[in-house]
Design brief:
Length: 258
């Protein structure tokens, strides 16, 4: 059995229509309300009561194997999920994938499509933290290399005789060799437990071997003394950087890893 718990500040009808408890605010003493869906269950939980362990109390009354999904309201101070629980935060408002999936399920309760909407909510809760991790990783890699990409593109349009002076005066701290371990650690941590063609593409681009980026990897050699030509395969750093971000995008958890 799959069970989705939704911790919320207000009663079910306040945001989710008339299918649930039928009240706009949690009445005194009310801590949860559940609905069965094709042998599974969605349970709305008063997040204030959850501080006293309402979710575990609910689970203690349900026998058999259980797969637990929790959509935790962002203002609730966090739910202490057990090992193996799928936990994602959400806010009350349109535009959030978790919230939108909850509302979509509410609109389909009682119909033949409710089960599919329930499964979709479970998938989104499971993916949500992975998507957040991916977005942060992609942002960090882009932030690390974008200054270099911009400076090198500017260098291309500067007369040859003035390039050395221009390069000498710019701030190269964001991408100098001293900061390279940060990039290397992020790449290696992100690739843990991932397999497939897309990961192999990323390894090749970064020159990864023996658990790290090799000393002769093109990007490591390039950063020691950036020049306009990057490599035979990627004529400019911009070409390599674009290929790197494309390889990362193929690892978006929304996409199947191939």
């Amino acid at each position: 059995m799959k069970i989705v718990f939704v911790t919320t500040t207000i009663g079910a009808r306040g945001h989710y229509g008339n299918h649930f408890a039928g009240f706009g605010e949690w009445p005194n003493g009310q801590t949860s309300h559940s609905v069965d869906i094709d042998g599974n269950k969605i349970v709305f939980v008063n997040q204030e009561a959850e501080k006293n362990g309402v979710i575990k109390t609910c689970l203690s009354g349900i026998s058999g194997g259980k797969e637990i999904y929790i959509a935790a309201h962002e203002s609730g101070g966090g739910v202490q999920g057990e090992n193996g629980w799928h936990v994602a935060k959400f806010g009350h408002g349109p535009g959030g994938e978790v919230f939108d999936a909850i509302v979509a399920l509410e609109n389909l309760l009682g119909s033949k499509d409710a089960g599919e909407a329930f499964d979709s909510l479970c998938r989104i809760i499971d993916l949500n933290p992975k998507m957040a991790e991916f977005a942060q990783f992609r942002h960090d890699i882009g932030k690390y290399f974008l200054p270099l990409d911009i400076d090198l593109q500017a260098l291309e349009i500067i007369p040859v005789e003035k390039r050395a002076a221009y390069w000498a005066q710019i701030d190269k701290v964001p991408y100098n060799n001293d900061n390279f371990p940060t990039f290397e650690n992020q790449i290696m941590r992100f690739m843990q437990d991932k397999t497939g063609t897309s990961i192999e593409d990323l390894k090749k681009l970064c020159g990864i071997e023996n658990g790290g980026i090799g000393e002769r990897a093109e990007i490591r050699v390039f950063l020691r003394s950036p020049v306009l030509k990057f490599s035979d395969e990627y004529p400019t750093f911009h070409d390599w950087f674009k290929a790197l971000m494309n390889a990362i995008d193929k690892l978006n958890p929304k996409r199947p890893i191939g």
